[in-house]
Design a protein that fits this description.
This protein is α/β, with parallel strands linked by helices and 180 residues long. It has a single domain, classed as Dihydrofolate Reductase, subunit A, CATH 3.40.430. The chain contains five helices and ten strands; from the N terminus they run ββαβααββαβαββββ. The strands form two sheets. The protein has an eight-stranded mixed sheet with strand order 5-4-3-6-1-7-10-9, with helices on both faces. A two-stranded antiparallel sheet has the order 2-8. α1 packs parallel to α3. The longest helix is centred in the first third of the chain and has 12 residues.
Length: 180
């Protein structure tokens, strides 16, 4: 069965974006880029909610060419939205229906890992429904004071087990959690 992996940046005070969608506090260096490239090598599908999809689709097609840009543009992508008219990014499919049902079917199909980047509400919903196999919190050594919480919309307590940590020279800690 395929794994669903969530990989999201988070400030030390629990936010994954600033109050005006700022991401300028994310620490992105060579070590982080190596982590990102390795994660994308293990995947063949990326899942997005509408907001993250729009940000990514506006950036990656014209991004400087490298392994990460090639993966972001080349991998299959599914965007979950009831309001988006079309998903025009390369290898992208729009799903208006039930995300949990779609992901449950994807997990049963042959293939590599399925990755969720950003898309906090989608990730939280699927986590609560038992469809996330690994949650990677990329903890940035910064306090931003306000913004959108990483784990928004959690309706019941979920216990996670820390399986691995990776400390980068920048002070970023990648925390690998799995549901208990």
């Amino acid at each position: 069965m395929r794994r669903v992996i969530v990989s999201n940046m988070m400030s030390l005070d629990g936010f994954f974006e600033g109050p005006n969608h700022e991401l300028n506090w994310h620490v992105v260096d060579d070590e982080f880029l190596a982590y990102a490239a390795d994660m994308l090598r293990s995947a063949d599908t990326i899942l997005f909610g509408r907001t993250t999809y729009e940000l990514m689709a506006n950036y990656w097609p014209s991004a400087p060419k490298d392994e990460i840009a090639d993966k972001m543009n080349g991998l299959g992508k599914i965007v979950f939205s009831k309001t988006l008219e079309k998903a025009g990014w390369n290898n992208c499919r729009l799903v208006r229906g039930n995300a949990a049902e779609e992901v449950s079917q994807l997990k049963k199909s042959p293939g590599k890992d399925i990755v969720i980047l950003g898309s906090g509400m989608l990730a939280s919903d699927l986590l609560q429904r038992g469809l996330i196999d690994e949650y990677r919190v990329i903890l940035n050594p910064v306090l931003i004071g306000a913004g959108k919480p990483l784990f928004e919309g959690i309706e019941h307590q979920l216990r996670l087990a820390l399986k691995e940590t990776k400390l980068l020279h920048s002070g970023v800690a990648i925390l690998y959690y799995r549901p208990r």
